[in-house]
Specification:
12 strands; 3-stranded antiparallel beta sheet; binds flavin mononucleotide; 31% strand; alpha+beta; Pnp Oxidase, Chain A
């Protein structure tokens, strides 16, 4: 089949595009309003933007107005990403509801707040990995009508990893963390199987490329 997203002429019950860029890891973003109200929400349009330095991006869709997360990050300049393991999916799902800015989603979902070290927003204490981030910039994309897409870019300034999730060989124990990721529709997946493959390495500069891929610096 072939279809043009602008025409939505796929003939299927639901547009398949969201099922193509999969799996999408879930950014579970903690912020504070200017008045200090904690906010927590999931965003699956999430990725790193380079490693050195480590930037991350969140794509947040406006529905008539900026979401609380965007407002908070742009006003306070800080946020925290919390990794979502399989056992926290129910809590994560609750925080995806639409609540007014005065609602503390940590309380709503029964989550524990832990202090961060370099930024003010709280960590989700139950999460195995958290990234403390400083706001860098917002990129705006048009999205039809008065709407826009806010792409938030942040610089990771601090990384928390619970020691129990670091294996003896020094790797993160992803199979034990079982991070959750979004698929299309109401589908989710989790990473519970990892396999290894050595990077193909040839030509001049191959060692540098290999170091970039594997993260091993000698
Ligand atoms: C698993 C999951 C993934 C989501 N991903 C996104 C996303 O990538 N972008 C977005 O704008 N909203 C996404 N949402 C919806 C937001 O979490 C929701 O609009 C939330 O209320 C925003 O909170 P805020 O207004 O406090 O920022 C997602 C929701 C769930 C449950």
């Amino acid at each position: 089949m072939f279809y043009e997203p602008s025409k939505n002429d796929h003939g299927l019950k639901r547009p398949p595009f969201k099922s193509i860029a999969v799996p999408r890891p879930i950014a579970w973003i903690s912020t504070l309003s200017e008045d200090g109200v904690p906010n927590l929400a999931p965003f699956s349009q999430f990725s790193n933007l380079g490693f050195e330095p480590p930037y991350i991006m969140l794509t947040i869709n406006q529905h008539g107005k900026k979401k609380d997360t965007v407002v908070n990050i742009e006003r306070t300049g800080e946020f925290v990403h919390n990794m979502v393991p399989l056992e926290l999916i129910e809590q994560m799902n609750i925080t995806g509801g639409t609540f007014p800015p005065e609602v503390d989603e940590f309380e709503l979902a029964g989550l524990t707040k832990a202090p961060a070290r370099l930024v003010k927003p709280y960590l989700v204490a139950e999460s195995p990995v958290q990234l403390e981030c400083k706001y860098v910039q917002t990129v705006h994309l048009p999205a039809g009508g008065a709407n826009a897409i806010d792409i938030i870019i942040g610089l990771v300034v601090g990384v928390h990893i619970k020691d129990e999730f670091i294996r003896e060989d020094g790797k993160l124990d992803i199979e034990r963390i079982r991070p959750v990721a979004r698929m299309g529709y109401s589908d989710y997946t989790t990473v519970d199987k990892v396999f290894e493959m050595q990077a193909y390495s040839a030509g001049s500069g191959a060692n540098v490329a290999l170091e970039g891929i594997t993260g091993v610096y000698k």
